[in-house]
Design goal:
The complex is a heterodimer of chains A (887) and B (478).
Chain A lengths: L9 E4 L4 E5 L5 E5 L3 E4 L5 E2 L1 E5 L5 E3 L5 E4 L5 E4 L2 E4 L3 E9 L2 E10 L9 H11 L26 H9 L16 H6 L16 H11 L12 E7 L2 E5 L4 E3 L1 E6 L4 E3 L5 E4 L5 E3 L4 E4 L3 E9 L2 E10 L15 H13 L9 H13 L5 H9 L5 H10 L2 H15 L14 H16 L4 H9 L3 E2 L17 H12 L19 H8 L5 E5 L6 E5 L6 E2 L6 E2 L16 H9 L5 H16 L19 H13 L4 H10 L26 E2 L2 H12 L25 H5 L19 H9 L1 H9 L2 H7 L4 H13 L5 H15 L2 H12 L3 H23 L3 H26 L2 H14 L2 H4 E2 L1
Parallel strand pairs in A: 4-12, 14-22
Antiparallel strand pairs in A: 1-2, 2-3, 3-6, 5-10, 6-7, 8-11, 9-10, 11-12, 13-16, 15-20, 16-17, 18-21, 19-20, 21-22, 23-25, 24-25, 26-27, 28-29
Helix pairs in contact in A: 1-4, 5-16, 6-8, 8-17, 9-10, 11-14, 12-13, 15-16, 15-17, 20-21, 21-28, 23-24, 23-28, 24-28, 25-27, 26-27
Chain B lengths: L3 H19 L12 H13 L17 H6 L16 H6 L16 H12 L55 E3 L5 E6 L2 E6 L5 E6 L4 E7 L5 E8 L3 E8 L5 E8 L5 E4 L5 E5 L4 E6 L5 E6 L5 E6 L6 E5 L4 E5 L4 E6 L6 E6 L5 E6 L3 E6 L4 E7 L17 E6 L5 E5 L3 E5 L6 E5 L6 E6 L5 E6 L3 E6 L5 E6 L3
Antiparallel strand pairs in B: 1-2, 2-3, 3-4, 5-6, 6-7, 7-8, 9-10, 10-11, 11-12, 13-14, 14-15, 15-16, 17-18, 18-19, 19-20, 21-22, 22-23, 23-24, 25-26, 26-27, 27-28
Helix pairs in contact in B: 2-5
Classes of the chains: A alpha+beta (887), B mainly beta (478).
Chain lengths: 887, 478
């Protein structure tokens, strides 16, 4: 969003939460917050000021600006801190050289003093000082009997424990400074937790004042914070060791706005790029992008910080953009001073898109056709063709199978996961994918799933867990469809995200009535909803929680199945969380990494690497009526998707901004299918018909050694981490030595047919390269391999030796060899002993016969020697990184 | 003949210090830094919470000279004469890890200097070196102790004037005790014990308790002595025995590193039992202050202790709800009474030593039969509404229980009521309301005619038991 430049005009914009004034072309002075409201005698607010130049680089000028209040009777200034003096409205005038800015200031109740409040003033100290963290008094049993609710989810309980649980122990209302809580916190008396604050700190003074007032409880009308902001929301450092002061403002339910910088906790998600200290001053370290977060009450909020090198003389290359994906990705790259890589070549594109869209490498014909095609739209056409392939449906059926945990558990029919039900389930999913059912309708059907797990497959959404509980169902649901893990907030407010206990139990209530009962046949269960039961109990005080959408309203679902309402809310085009999660899952398939990564860990402290891109993808998907093919088309056609994996100096460290093609290991099933397809062999999988490819296996429990070793998802949990694409030693060893490659190469008709067709070595090598790597071998590769082949095949002794190796596979041959050996040994012995010529002669004859037999056997094998040599070359190709990775 | 020597000696004594002071810059006075006088308080303050005889982290106890010099599981801590070879000094001066005290700032430089100097001077125990632990003995005239009604009910007379200004706010009532034979009630205040006449409800006098907060007040069974125990959280705790008539401190028992939370004096006054956050029940000899038994059984803070009126049993309760009954003579266990699930807030023996009443935060009062430890009655004593909602299933806790001589008993609970129960606990004889904050302690007066209950605001209400009416109020902050 570019601001138009009006020289000599000053204006405050509420949209960006900063008051901006532009005097020079491009350079702006930004004051945070953009409007100041002071309320009550004790209220104080400290501002932060940034200068932003036309490159977007920011500088912290908080200490350098001149400040003046238009009406000094209303507001007093102490450095950069404002304090109320009299009621009214005025302006804060900020000046830095030629740059000016104005911030409106409202003062209310300037002379009214507010009593120290337990919830507003004391509880934040517990959080900021670390008192109520899990390693201290926030632990399940507290410390030495003093237990505070973790991160303060129960202020009423904390008040009771502090003041009245042990009368006369923790606070001293008669002589407040002698309170144990203060003496321990300052280290006056022994405290295992160490010194928490000093006696001259604000926190000490606040708590002392509260105890002096008699340690009163709040009267019940205490305003609650509704949200916080961490300002400035965007910082771009040029060079190392730059700092920026931040301000945290909290908005309360009574309309007041409070500077809570001194009460907030600060964190960063990448210390190597940006660090932030306890006072909220952010410091840039190494080049890159990161987020700093502030935490107050139950809110966590982040702001982006970029650190750019000062000496790179970056110039954006002249590069084209195909669609909105490129515009948004390149926007980000421009800000990061990263140039995107070049476009990948046709061969690379062909292989990449085939593996991604249909899970198979291109055949020789497909390769020749594509490479020879001169149509300038050939890539777009190829994408369209692949989207219509049957194998595309298989890939997405598999992906949904992983998300929905389609896994058969036999011998426990009461849990509803019998293989018969899973066949039904997998079959239904496949049908939907084949029909290209809009994702929202597909999901909506699942959400309201009822009935027999065999006859109404959608009911299987609810049979996934061993025990059907509202809590577990809610957790899985949120993780799959909203990409967010609410598990932490089952026991306390989520430490790094916005979810509270209330949110968790309100969401779980949607599933309070879902039940299972035995069906007609032994393996059948029936899922149904008890509409009368739609509340769950909150663990803190037993409140009955009614269904409430996660981050949304509470619908009226009395007497109905609340899942109907849930399905509507979830899959509505207005539900950005759902659309973005679906888009993110789709995106991560093509890049190996979601814009939020992992794709099921959306949380405030795990921000998207490109927020605008994620939002646009979500909107597009919703706009397409959730037709995933259309979004995939957009993605695959984008230049971003087609960038080469070769990096340049500006983007070689990038792992999150899609500046170049990411090298990603093939998923286990795709890898196996690729090897199988190239060798022309077949796999047999348990309980699956002949000809089933690995991506088509219906249930997670059906696997084999290869698939398990390469990280096939067992589908035991809803976690996206189940699909494991990490490399490890077992995998390497299996490729080198294991059955899979050995047997498939040995059993393949590919090489025999090439040899039978009397192809010259160069041609065979070329064919193998094209099949395995989708490219022709380089001149060097060809030369070396042909040399090697000729060495082996044109040297008779070598052929004989190799034939011998091959013949040794036969046990009979080995026995002959042993026989020959022992005969020879006997012969030598007899010779030494000086035996007669007759005996020796006999032996000689036997030896000769045996050796003749051996030679004949070898000659029979000689025809196989070329198979061995080319087989080894194919083995070499299969063991190369270039093969196992999509690049 | 009057020797001139003593006079001269006296003169010399008078003159020498003066000379020493005049010539202070030319003749340095001999430095004296001893464990007993200088180092012990420092070590106690900064190290005593962990390196005390009860906890003895790393087997290292700094509270006595012998154990300090003996060292702990890391070896000797003090190398006399050389601070730089002394592990203790290196730890507290942050020269070598582990830095002590852990997770806290370095102890003040002045204290470090004292320790350093002391080690340099050879780490002497006292200024008169190798003084033996003087065994102190207090004459309590135990032979004449009886538990029957005395001829003259012991009342305070001519208590010394005490100037303790009232605090800005009254301290909650943490302890309350009624004399068994006199119209006298002792109320814990902030760093003081207040003595009121229960007939006319007037303040008789104040006993200073500079140890900080008294958490326990117990009259001896003959009414002649008053035991006050408490202290300063995480720092110091002890029990003080006062003579009721004169108000003088007879003796002090115990040297704990945290406040004492439970205490009692045996009917024969031979023993004082203490308990607190160290989870131990310690039985001391009153006369010598010696530790007779250290009982390690409770799994949480010991929060209540009482000797049976016949002196044969000692009951103790903890913050987990565990109750044990001991034989005080031997320290051996008689009963384990495990029915309570939450903190034991108070206990009271019936006058005939046949029944023990325990009150707990789990909302129950349990009456245990002393012969066999059987819980004859378990009752939810306080079931009224509470000022703030309780978690589901929770019953308001009982904070205090007290038997009167007649066998009736009274309780106070978190539902802001005081209740009077008949002997068997089957019937509630009366309910008293009107508390604005939680009532924490309740006692009957010596004749059972009045009931006194103190609350969190520091106010005590006095009712007539017969007509159930409020007759007056007392305060912790007169």
């Amino acid at each position: 969003m570019k601001l138009k430049i009006f020289p000599l005009v000053c204006f405050a914009t509420l949209l960006t939460s900063s008051a901006v004034c532009i005097a020079d072309a491009g350079t702006q002075l930004k004051v945070f917050p953009s409007e100041i409201s002071l309320r009550g005698q004790g209220d104080r607010l400290t501002i932060a000021v940034q200068v932003v130049n036309d490159q977007g680089i920011t500088r912290d000028v908080t200490g350098a600006v001149k400040l003046r209040v238009a009406d000094a009777k209303l507001v007093g200034l102490d450095g950069q801190t404002l304090k109320p003096m009299a009621d009214g409205e005025t302006k804060l005038l900020v000046e830095l050289g030629q740059l000016k800015a104005e911030v409106p200031v409202t003062v209310k109740e300037a002379t009214a003093s507010r009593d120290v409040s337990f919830r507003l003033d004391v509880m934040p100290i517990f959080m900021k000082s670390g008192c109520n963290t899990g390693s201290c008094h926030g632990a399940a049993r507290g410390k030495d009997g003093f237990h505070l609710s973790l991160f303060g989810y129960d202020p009423a309980g904390d008040y009771y424990k502090l003041t009245r649980q042990l009368v006369g122990r923790r606070i001293d209302v008669a002589v407040p400074e002698k309170s144990l809580v203060l003496e321990k916190a300052t280290g006056e008396v022994d405290h295992t937790g160490g010194q928490v604050f000093t006696a001259d700190s604000d926190d000490y003074r606040t708590m002392l004042r509260w105890i002096e007032a008699g340690a009163p409880d709040d009267k019940g009308d205490t305003p609650e914070p509704l949200g916080i902001e961490l300002l400035p929301s965007k910082t771009v450092f040029a060079g190392k060791d730059q700092t920026q002061k931040t301000v945290v403002v909290a908005r309360y339910s009574d309309g007041s706005v409070r500077d809570v910088t001194k009460l907030a906790l600060f964190m960063t998600n990448n210390d190597a790029v940006v660090s932030i200290d306890k006072e909220g001053v952010a410091k840039g370290n190494n080049r890159g992008g990161a987020f700093v977060f502030a935490r107050f009450n139950k809110f966590t909020v982040g702001s982006e910080v970029l650190v750019l090198p000062t000496d790179d003389k970056f110039v954006w290359p002249n590069t084209s953009e195909t669609n909105f994906v490129d515009t948004l990705v390149f926007d980000k790259l421009k800000k990061l001073h990263m140039a995107p890589s070049e476009l990948c070549d046709d061969e690379t594109f062909l292989r990449r898109v085939s593996l991604d869209l249909i899970g198979l490498p291109p055949t020789r014909e497909e390769y020749d056709r594509f490479v020879a095609d001169t149509d300038k739209d050939k890539r777009a056409k190829l994408i369209d063709q692949l989207l219509d392939r049957e194998e595309f449906v298989d890939i997405w059926s598999m992906k949904w199978g992983e998300l929905l945990r389609i896994r058969a558990v036999n011998n426990q029919p009461q849990y509803g996961r019998d293989a018969k039900a899973m066949w039904s389930y997998a079959g239904w999913v496949h049908e939907q994918m084949a029909a290209n059912r809009p994702l929202n309708e597909f999901v909506a059907d699942l959400v309201v799933g009822n009935g027999s797990n065999i006859k109404q497959p959608t009911s299987n959404l609810y049979t996934a867990n061993e025990r059907l509980t509202p809590q577990k169902t809610a957790e899985d649901f949120a993780q799959i469809f909203l990409g967010t893990r609410i598990q932490c907030s089952q026991c306390h407010n989520h430490p790094f995200d916005r979810w509270t206990l209330d949110d968790y139990y309100g969401f779980a209530s949607f599933f309070a009535g879902v039940n299972m009962k035995r069906g007609v046949e032994g393996r059948e269960v029936v899922v149904y909803n008890n509409n009368a039961n739609n509340t769950v109990e909150h663990p803190v005080n037993g409140r009955k929680m009614k269904p409430k959408f996660l981050g949304g309203d509470a619908p009226d679902v009395e007497g109905q199945d609340p899942r109907v309402s849930l399905a509507k809310w979830l899959t509505s085009p207005d539900n950005a969380a759902f659309a973005q999660t679906m888009s993110n899952i789709i995106w991560s398939h093509f890049f190996g990494r979601g814009i939020v990564e992992p794709v099921d860990d959306v949380r405030i402290s795990n921000p998207p690497s490109n927020k605008e891109l994620l939002e646009a993808l979500g909107q597009k998907l919703a706009g397409y009526g959730f037709d995933k093919k259309k979004l995939i088309r957009d993605i695959c056609n984008s230049r971003t998707y087609q960038l080469s994996a070769a990096t340049n100096p500006t983007n070689e460290l990038d792992e999150a901004y899609f500046s170049h093609g990411y090298v990603r290991r093939l998923q286990a099933e795709v890898l196996l299918d690729t090897i199988t397809r190239i060798t022309g062999t077949e796999d047999r999988f348990q309980s699956s018909p002949q000809g089933t490819r690995a991506v088509q296996i219906y249930a997670g429990n059906v696997t084999n050694f290869f698939l398990t070793t390469f990280g096939r998802a067992p589908r035991e949990s809803a976690c996206s981490c189940e699909v494991n694409k990490e490399a490890n030693l077992s995998q390497a060893l299996h490729l080198v030595n294991g059955d899979t490659i050995t047997l498939k190469v040995a059993g393949s008709r590919l090489i025999p047919s090439l040899i039978a067709a009397k192809q010259p070595p160069e041609k065979i090598v070329e064919e193998l390269y094209i099949l395995a790597l989708s490219r022709k071998p380089t001149v060097d590769e060809t030369a070396k391999l042909v040399d090697l082949i000729n060495q082996e095949l044109e040297d008779p002794t070598r052929v004989d030796k190799l034939a011998g190796l091959r013949a040794q596979l036969d046990q009979a041959y080995r026995r002959l060899e042993d026989q020959a050996k022992s005969l020879k040994a006997e012969y030598e012995k007899l010779k030494e002993d000086g035996q007669e010529a007759e005996a020796l002669g006999n032996l000689e004859k036997q030896i000769t016969t045996t050796e003749k037999q051996l030679a004949e056997a070898r000659a029979r094998q000689a025809g196989n020697v070329p198979l061995m040599v080319y087989g080894d070359i194919l083995w070499g190709l299969f063991n190369s990184t270039e093969f196992a990775f999509n690049h | 003949m009057i020797s001139r020597l003593p006079a001269l000696a006296i003169l010399a004594c008078l003159v020498v210090p003066a000379i020493a002071q005049d010539k202070s810059d030319t003749a340095k006075p001999k430095e004296v830094v001893t464990y007993k006088d200088h180092v012990s308080p420092i070590l106690r303050k900064h190290c005593g919470n962990c390196h005390n005889p009860d906890k003895a982290t790393s087997d290292f106890n700094v509270m006595t000279y012998q154990t300090l010099m003996a060292g702990g599981s890391s070896g000797e801590a003090i190398a006399a004469g050389s601070p730089d070879s002394s592990r203790l000094y290196k730890a507290v001066a942050h020269i070598e890890e582990p830095f002590m005290p852990p997770k806290a700032p370095k102890i003040p430089e002045a204290d470090l200097a004292v320790i350093k100097k002391w080690i340099e001077l050879g780490a002497p125990e006292t200024s008169v070196s190798a003084a033996k632990n003087a065994t102190r003995k207090v004459d309590l005239d135990l032979a004449s102790v009886s538990t029957g009604k005395p001829d003259v009910p012991p009342m305070p007379e001519n208590l010394p004037e005490v100037s303790l200004p009232p605090t800005k706010r009254p301290h909650p009532v943490t302890a309350l005790a009624a004399s068994p034979w006199a119209p006298l009630v002792a109320v814990a205040g902030h760093e003081r014990v207040l003595l009121y006449n229960t007939d006319d409800l007037k303040l008789i006098g104040v006993l200073p308790f500079p140890e900080r907060i008294p958490h326990v007040l117990k009259f001896s069974r003959d009414g002649k002595r008053l035991l006050a125990a408490g202290g300063r959280g995480a720092d110091v705790g002890k029990a003080v025995l006062f003579d009721v008539t004169s108000g003088k401190r007879i003796t002090e028992i115990g040297d704990e590193t945290d406040s004492v939370l439970a205490a009692d004096i045996s009917p024969n006054q031979k023993w004082v039992a203490l308990g607190g956050p160290n989870k131990l029940v310690k039985i001391f000899s009153t006369e010598t202050g010696e530790l007779k038994h250290k009982i390690k059984k409770h799994t949480d803070w010991v929060t209540s202790i009482e000797f049976s009126p016949n002196g044969e049993m000692l009951a103790s309760g903890d913050r987990n709800g565990g109750v044990y009954v001991w034989e005080p003579e031997t320290g051996s266990i008689l009963f384990t009474l495990g029915d309570h699930k939450e903190m034991i807030t108070d206990m009271s023996w019936r006058a005939d030593s046949q029944m023990l009443a325990t009150a707990s935060e789990d909302g129950r009062v349990i009456l245990w039969y002393a012969e066999d430890g059987f819980p004859t009655r378990s009752m939810n004593a306080h079931t009224g509404p509470t000022p703030t909602p309780l978690p589901r299933g929770k019953i308001p806790g009982v904070l205090s229980v007290n038997y009167s001589r007649s066998g009736d008993f009274a309780t106070v609970g978190r539902d802001l009521t005081a209740r009077l129960w008949n002997n068997s606990g089957a019937n509630q004889a009366a309910k008293f309301e009107g508390f604005t904050d939680i009532p924490s302690r309740v006692v009957f007066t010596h004749d059972g005619n009045r009931l006194i209950a103190g609350d969190f605001t520091g106010k005590l209400q006095v009712w007539s038991v017969k007509d159930k009416s409020l007759v007056g109020e007392l305060t912790t902050n007169p």
